[in-house]
Amino acid sequence: MYFIQYILMCLYIAMYLYFQLTHTPMPEQLPIINTGIAFAFLAWGGFWSVRVTVDCIRLRAKNQMTVENMRKGLLLAMLNFLPNLGMSGFMLLEGFR
Q: Which residue of 1, 3, 13, 52 pairs with 77 in a disulfide if CB–CB is 3.0 to 4.6 A?
């Protein structure tokens, strides 16, 4: 997932630099597309983090997972979402200014 997001971020930066260096007006749709894609990545990353969290809690309730492994799974879900949050937040705040 992050690989796709890195590629899109590089494409956004390349498009921004193209419009800045050629002094041509930027199309009005680009900020809307940027916002939609950033929110889609946030939803996608949030879905997988919540899914891992629910799976850890469900397996712990069935006594198929130890408490220590559940904590590690919850930490993994949170740490897996942080880069996604950072990249999407950056693209929402700084994209196409």
A: 52
